[in-house]
Amino acid sequence: MKFKHQHILSTKQFDKNDLLAFFEVVKKMEKVVEEAVKEGKQSKLCEGKILATLFYEPSTRTRFSFETAMLRLGGRVISNFDMLKTSSATKMETLYDTGKVISQMANVIVMRHPEVGSTEKMAKGSNVPVINAGDGSGEHPTQALLDLYTIWKSHGRIDGLTIGMIGDLKNGRVPHSQCSLLKHFGCKFIFVSPVGLKMPSEITAELRACGCEVVETEDLAEVIHDMDVICMTRIQKERFANDEEYGKYAGSYVLDCEMMNLAKKDSIVLHPLPRVDEISSEVDDDPRAKYFEQVKNGVAVRMALICEVFGIKV
Ligand code: CP
User: Fold this and answer.
1) Active site residue 61
2) Which pTM value belongs to this model?
3) What is the pLDDT of residues 77-105, one digit of tens each?
4) CATH class name, domain 11-139+295-310
5) Is 198 designated active site?
6) In 3D, which of 103, 94, 140, 101 has the Cα closest to residue 121?
7) Residue 138 and residue 172: Cα distance in Å, rounded?
8) 20 to 30 A Cα–Cα from 293, which one of 27, 62, 124, 308?
């Protein structure tokens, strides 16, 4: 497959054929990881290349996942996990200039930033590929790719599945990016959120324009039986003006064993993590819980993405 752009900034860059071809590359990457873990075999696919992780917002999974992916491919990593406080951003260096500068040193840039559209600003300056690891409440394309890969792997298909998304659908960049990819597969969507945190209307309108059925409700117990995929999300505390505003929504939904008893026997539960209290830890032992498997899949997905932006055939 060949991506339409050098940079990976948005899920809008992918159509259905791209995604299905991409999943086959990810499967190969899972084998590369397996060979490394079981046989100590080191891939040399990215030997001599350097990946820079520039994080202006906190992260556990995404940064380590990209760094692990590059190391698994035989490349090397330079990293700043606190760009807002410890980089020349404090001296008002622009994202455009930062892109120009880092691309003199690294072969690919992975960045996360609180501002929507920030990754495009860096990409304009950069001479090397820039990958969006989350831009405010905008997008998180690589998370959505690994979520779809997990669905595809678990269900053997995505076409026609009923996808539930639960929680902060207004501020969550992950559900936004997931919708942008899932719209290609004729899915039915069930959005469960408090009224104040509904999925933006432009997203529901786009899904309906693509022929997808969309249901919106506040009541999870009423609809969970219909879901093939249960995508839980955190109430995005960092996007609220203050603790009082956040407090109005904190703890809105909790997926526990009692709620899982109402779900389909072959449904799966996804969460981009971190979780706060929206999935009870007792659900972790349920074979339908796939959120830690998502983390594992994420490394292979990012290995495949890194190879794709370099045009490396696997
Ligand atoms: N899923 C995700 O983006 O996690 P981090 O914020 O830990 O990177």
Assistant:
1) yes
2) 0.95
3) 999 999 999 999 999 999 999 999 999 99
4) alpha beta
5) no
6) 94
7) 8
8) 308
